[in-house]
Amino acid sequence: MNALAAFVLAGTAAATSVLPEVRVQPIRSHRGLPHAFHDQAVASVAAASPPGEIVEQLRAETRGDLSYALVAWKSGPQAPRVEINAVAVNGRHAWFLDVAGAASAYPALRAAVNTRLQALSAPYVPAPAQLTVRGQSSLGEQLSVEGVDQIIAATGWGDWFPWSVPALFSGVVGPRSEQLGVHSYVLVFLTSVIGLMATYWYWRNADQTR
Question: What residue ranges of the chain are covered by domains with CATH 3.30.310?
Fold first, then answer.
């Protein structure tokens, strides 16, 4: 009898060791998260017809660099299935987590979510190869622009090329500042504004993990 009980317990442990798969989706804009997600999710469960039941809710938890909110709910007190929704934020990155299963398997579902949250809590560090490639690319682009603006300034069209205007104004390429006109300074101003707007858009919307 003891051997049979040990066999059953071993089989149960092996079955529960395989955690359910948690769906993880990136969120582009995470303003107000994770708190806003919690409040909206709880309100949605309460407003359902018939009202759902909250199994567990966490509005503002932290795990390392990660902050997250979690709402586990069922469609009713006797519902056989439970769903866990969570939103996690780590710096400029955010994710929506979702897993559902039998209510009796809630501990395994919760453990699967915890495993995912633990993985997302690690700070993102670009690989050395990525840093090297990006650094070389930026340096190459800068050198190319500097070479082009010297050539354009020497040909007499530097007043129409924003990157040549500083060299003409300072006299680095010779006494040619008389070529500059109002249009030259307007082009420099517009180029600066567009560059700032493009940089802000990239920092706010680009996926920095790629």
Answer: 19-120
Q: Write down the H helix ranges in 59-181.
A: 106-120, 128-154, 165-170
Q: Are the beta carbons of 54 and 43 closer than 8 angstroms?
A: no
77-112 per-position pLDDT tens digit: 899 999 999 999 988 889 999 999 999 999 999 999
Q: What Cα–Cα distance (Å) separates residue 196 from each residue in 161, 180, 199?
A: 18, 24, 5
Question: Can you state the percent helix, strand and coil of the chain, rounding each to 5?
Answer: 50, 20, 25
Report residue 175 as tokens: 């006494």
Tokens for 20, please give them.
Answer: 């359910």
CATH number of 19-120: 3.30.310
Strand order in the sheet with 53-63: 23-27, 93-102, 81-90, 66-74, 53-63
Q: Is the distance from CB of 195 to CB of 183 less than 8 angstroms?
A: no
* In the predicted structure, residue 9 carries a pLDDT above the cut 90: no
Query: CA-to-CA distance for 6 and 13, rounded, in angstroms?
Result: 11
